[in-house]
Specification:
mainly alpha; 72% helix; 0% strand
Length: 348
Amino acid sequence: IPWLDNARAFAILAVILVHATEHIYSMDAVHLNAISFQSALFAIIAFTIGRLGVPIFLFLTGYLLLDRKFNEDMCEKFWKRNWLGMVITTEIWIVIYDIFLRVFHFQPHWHTMSLFKDMLFLTQVKMGHMWYMPMIIGVYLCIPFAARSLQKLNAKILIFPVGILSAYAFLIPVWRVINETLSLTKIGSVLDLGYSGGVYGIYIILGYCIKKGMLNFCKKKQLGIIVSIFFLLTVLLQIFPLAYGKTYNVWYDCGFLVICGLFLFELFSFTKFIGSQKWWTWLSRNSFGIYLIHFPLIMVLQEWAKSLPLIMPVKVMLLCGIVLAISILICRGINHFPRLSKLLLYNR
């Protein structure tokens, strides 16, 4: 399905952009207020675009997996092929990352016990993007149960519970940012969202709702307007604290970001990307491999990129382009060895 490939291709490009941005810029109030407004605005806009990558990935998971009919045989097949395959690939990369961190002096000493803890998911390997893997592994474990439960329900019945959960998961954090910026009373929430999978579980359920036609009433122009409005609100929510010398970098519990990402996901079904569809499809199918490969490249190249006599936005885009190109070349090389590709890149 071309538009789903395009959505996934966008998501991996966005992830590379957000990581390149935060490795060139220091995304805190002290540094952003010390540079020109134009440069700081670019950083926040690029960072916000980048933050849309993970929501798109999660919407895709719900769209593609929660509508499947999981009988007992399908459950076993899913856990063996998809879940166990993802665990094995993650474990291999945890070892690669630990070796990488030691070889390139990002951590001073080799600790075998720390490696075992990383592999058992008792601690997190010191790579900024690796928080995603334990989360998605946990989610995948429960996908068959969720899918079987949802198939027995009319999608309309989800409006009430998903609405309540979304309000607590995504609107209270926005309210909290505003309150803390103005030094008002701190806002908390005692509602336990764990049974729903937390904010990430809600993202996946929303992807399923898109599959069931939740936004079919919206036309392309309306979708574009809503995406633009909530993208602007997400950017302003980060600019607002800067005026008070405070830092807020948007996270996935931000209601503005969720709405922007959700309507953007639907908008992809109306949008054809520039260039050959084969290229976007290839990028989509190799997005997981690129995700695993790109971060060490950014860590190695960031100091070189920072040293260039160029303005910071150009450094960000240059770092993005080089990291993407090298990641693609590595993926292409590994793809020549199907068994290795299956293990290293989770190519199924």
